[in-house]
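Notes on consecutive records. When two proteins share a document, each keeps its own sequence and its own token line. Never mix them. Below: protein one.
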Amino acid sequence: MEISPGNVSPLASSATIQQMDHSHERSHHGNSLVNILSRWSHQHSDDEQKVLALNVLLLGNRQSGRSSVGNALIGGHEFQTGACISGVSVTTEYRVLSRNFPRYFRRQGAESDLMLRVIDTPPLPPCPQTVHELCPEGVHVLVLVARTDLPHENTQLEQCVESLFGPDWRHHALLILTHADHLKKAGLRPSGYLTEATDWLGTLASKVVGGVSLLDSSCDWPSISGRLLRDRLLRLSARNHHRALNVRTDVSL
């Protein structure tokens, strides 16, 4: 209710004004507290939201080193690895592991966590429906894994990936060649190897936008190369503005 000065005496006006001033101070003080708490809550909420979550799908043939690459990405040894017996792959079912890396990078001027959700798969071909169920929101990065010493093992890799994700797959993919120590033994340089590689592998290497990484399997490269792989993966996702590829479930591989 609005109060007119003509309706009150000067004393009453003075008292009223004094009371209103105190009320204003209390209101101002209260508003300040509310504003402070509101800003803190907003900042706290922003901090909680500064997490970039990426779905990473590992694809390759048996004994290509998919699980070892997965271990490097998450910085652990949770994915089972080892030599196959009678040609049977160690990884026989899909497995998903997540790892959060606090304050991993800066995004829009603020520190952000990196949450990697890594999906290890059985040997090719992948099951579209299963991949869709594991990644209903899509796949941000495709990690294609092949062995340098077995260049004829993954000849259908590109065909499988394109059937699963369509022609845009190459913009979300990087190629990792394991067992690169065999190149040293053969006296080959990485650049020379890719030039002389079989047609399918050379073509694949030229198509993946994320580039090619060679990993030496004679050392503990999962712990040594993990940060490098995560950085490359993050740069590739940023190049795509962190958009995800949708899985095509209307195909059979």
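Protein two starts on the next line and is unrelated to protein one.
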Amino acid sequence: MRRSESEAHSRTHVERLPILTYQFDVEEETIDETIEIEEEPDIPNVDESESLLSNVVSDVNKTLTNLYNHVTSANVTAENRTSIANETRKLVKCKEIVYEGTEEIEVEIINGTHLAKLLQVKPDVTSRDTEADCVLVLFYARACPFSAHAAPYFNALARAYPNIKMVALDALKYHGINAQYGIVGVPTLKMFHNGRPVGKFNGTEYNIQSFSKFVHAITGQYPLELLVTSKDFQGPVSSVVEKDTDYFLVLSWLFIIVCSIYYFMQSKWWNMIVEMVQNNWRESEAQHEHND
């Protein structure tokens, strides 16, 4: 009887153990699944990121393409305008100069009267492409250092372009013609075709290369040679600055000084100075009488 009770008790104990183990295992699995669901991080969609990046790159490429097309079209327009301007501008046609025997090609120093004869207008020549006399005039001053610097290169330029008459005129000595030809400073280089001005040198570098480019741009002629020799520094246009008294400049300074004195005498400062001198003079006389 006791044995049967103990066996029954043992069976009951044995039958209960699997049930407890089963329940524990089920709870553990449930808890693990819950934790995994709650702590699972959000993973970004790779396809969406690549699509967004491709859209940005596409927009940037479109913007750069539009900018490139705009700049290219602007450059093409500018080139077209330049080519049209070059086609519209006509080069002057210079008449050939015939030299006799051993006549030397050099710059001629002239006066105002001779320049007026050279620049006489022929009525039958009405356009630039009509053959006519071309004259290149250098307006200079003997006392100007810039004119002296440009002189040897202008002397050499006459040999490079034999079909262009090159002359030089002292603009200070013959100042009466400055307003007639628009001369406001020296040195000034101007080209004339049939007595009419067709070009003015506006460069800041006075050398034979810049002078040659100026002549070629107007006439289309190419130089025979661009060579400056030691003789070109001696003349005809002198490359040495000469000290010459400019009487018109002296008169201008005298006029300025006289006007300055006059307007100063009309000011209150002049009255204050006069009054102060008079007071000091009276005080000194009173002091002198008191001492006597």
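For the record: The first strand starts at residue 108 and ends at 110.
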